[in-house]
């Protein structure tokens, strides 16, 4: 491969690539040249503290030597094998995943990412139940492929209406800061479960194949369900014979301080989708974990679906090494511990800044919800839009070397799990300084 300078990289990328989530002429590209630990560097040598784990995926941190070597070894040994071939990485990863996933999950179908995993989850739920509807939450993101975008309960879906996959019905999942039911304290779980039960009655329980839920809502604002909610969903699913699909694409592999977010409430889904932290982004991979019941259904019936790269050995080897890193470096526990630091620091920021309406976190999945006014809770940017204040925050973060994702009026905090308390506080200090300026703007 020939060497290009940063200008050439950007110019040629712009010429030949087609970009997602942006108008082609507006796309801003950052020529990244190096990454290590919780940092990455651009071509000019500027260092960024990565508060978004690139795309919420680099759980094990950047430039991990063990992971890199495992991938290189697999390339040398067997760089590709077909979807019906038994390989060593396929055997070992299956065994590992079975151990770390909830007790209800025993078998795995490998895909290339989260959206493909959710596509297969929809098919499985529909096949085993013989029903067609899927219930999904508003304020959710499940991927950009045809079925997954139909599940998505945020405006990313709207561009593709009305030609979406049919049969998806959305409902309100828990958002305690902006609870539409105005529940009495302690009654939130009951109100949200009653709402779901009502939707099920309206839609007809015998038409519903599955309920898909991000266990903690990710990009749409780090929305943590109240205790009892997921158990309530599980009970409803069991009662009506509906498949409970947990989307753990963002929340899996230690992100929330446990292997999977469902572990916080000890909930047993029928289907669980994973991606991102499964390989810490070192190779593309998704997976659909499923119960015995689903596999039994297909014992003597063909599953009409397939992928050329189902079980790509390089991705599987990356996942195995990644899980070993998470285990050997105690990164699940680290996420739990750093999560306490994050939660305490977020509370302090809330006390200090008038522009903060709410802060939420579980492990190293955190969010700061910004408002113009604490009394009215008016968001600092309207729904599905930005504002001068939010743009200011983003550009100031980037100028100060903090790489952070901002979704409308919410700052997301999703760093690699190897982050130290000092590095975490270093990033939060930058946000603190910027919010001092925002307080004066509102
Ligand atoms: C919760 C959730 N599900 C699914 C997806 C889709 O994953 P992918 O981009 O790998 O297709 C994402 C991606 O951000 C996600 O956050």
Strand content: 15-25%
Note poorly predicted spans.
Answer: none
CATH class of the largest domain: Alpha Beta
Q: Identify the strand order in the major beta sheet.
A: 4-10-9-8-7-5-6
Assembly level: single chain
* Distance between the amino and carboxyl termini: 51 Å
The string of secondary-structure elements, in order, is: HEEEHHHEHEHEHEHEEEHHHEEEHEEEH
Q: Give me the number of helical elements.
A: 13
Helix content: 25-40%
- Tell me the CATH superfamily of the largest domain: Type I PLP-dependent aspartate aminotransferase-like (Major domain)
* Main sheet makeup: 7 strands, mixed
E-strand count: 16
Task: Please render the helix and strand layout as text.
Elements: H1 6-16, E1 32-36, E2 39-42, E3 47-50, H2 53-56, H3 65-77, H4 88-100, E4 107-111, H5 114-129, E5 133-137, H6 146-151, E6 168-171, H7 188-203, E7 208-214, H8 229-240, E8 243-247, E9 271-274, E10 286-290, H9 292-297, H10 313-328, H11 331-352, E11 356-362, E12 365-373, E13 378-379, H12 388-399, E14 402-403, E15 405-407, E16 410-413, H13 421-441
Parallel strand pairs: 3-14, 5-6, 5-7, 7-8, 8-9
Antiparallel strand pairs: 1-2, 2-3, 4-10, 9-10, 11-12, 12-13, 12-16, 15-16
Helix pairs in contact: 3-10, 4-10, 7-8, 11-13, 12-13
The structure holds pyridoxal-5'-phosphate.
How does this model look, in words?
The structure is a single chain. By secondary structure, the chain is α/β, with parallel strands linked by helices. The chain has two domains: 6-60 and 330-441, Alpha-Beta Complex (Aspartate Aminotransferase, domain 1), CATH 3.90.1150.10; 66-328, Aspartate Aminotransferase, domain 2 (3-Layer(aba) Sandwich), CATH 3.40.640. The chain has 13 helices and 16 strands. Strand 1 and strand 2 form a beta hairpin. The protein is globular, with a radius of gyration of 22 Å. Pyridoxal-5'-phosphate (PLP) binds at residues 113-115, 118, 141-143, 214, 218-219, 247, 249-250, 275.
